[in-house]
Design brief:
The chain contains 5 helices and 6 strands; from the N terminus they run βββββααβααα. By secondary structure, it is an alpha+beta fold. The strands form 2 sheets. Strands 1-2-3 form a 3-stranded antiparallel sheet, with no helix packed on it. Strands 5-4-6 form a 3-stranded mixed sheet. A hairpin with a 5-residue loop joins β2 and β3. It is elongated and about 60 Å long.
């Protein structure tokens, strides 16, 4: 593992622990050259589906894109990084459980919407406005009215 501070390739593992209910191993490493410590995470490489975009292009599944979308929607909201990570983990797990070799980007977007709907309604509306490509204020207001109605029904 390359040291993020000095680019040295040699390090030693100082500590290993399971994380995320045993799905990830967290390792503390110490560089043999600069003696600084850093953390790495190890997870099983799972076969994830190819994402089929709206225009028909295909690209590899990228958890980072899901994470970035959720983070952007949650910007300046009282939502912790660990909560956002957990949401991305749940989405990734549901996609894996589908067992498909290809998945439409629309399906991933809907999964993100479900998570955000439960997580934070402001973040949900932010994401929905971009994802559903609201063209005007009426579409935005319709989404807000739907949320308000759901809140009253609870």
């Amino acid at each position: 593992m390359r040291c993020p501070f000095c680019d040295e390739l040699e390090d030693r593992v100082v500590d290993s622990r399971m994380a995320k209910e045993g799905e990830v191993i967290r390792r503390r490493r110490e560089c043999t050259s600069c003696h600084r410590r850093f953390t790495t995470y190890e997870r099983v490489e799972e076969i994830l589906p190819v994402v089929v975009k709206k225009d028909g292009r295909r690209e590899p599944f990228d958890r980072g894109k899901i994470l970035a979308g959720i983070k952007k929607a949650c910007e300046k909201r009282p939502i912790s990084t660990s909560t956002i990570e957990a949401a991305a983990d749940r989405i990734e797990k549901r996609i894996q459980e589908m067992g498909e070799s290809e998945i439409e980007s629309r399906v991933i977007g809907e999964e993100v919407m479900k998570e955000l709907h439960q997580l934070d309604q402001v973040a949900y509306v932010r994401f929905a406005s971009v994802y559903r490509e609201f063209k005007d204020i009426d579409q935005f207001m319709d989404e807000l009215k739907m949320l308000a109605q759901q809140r009253r029904d609870r």
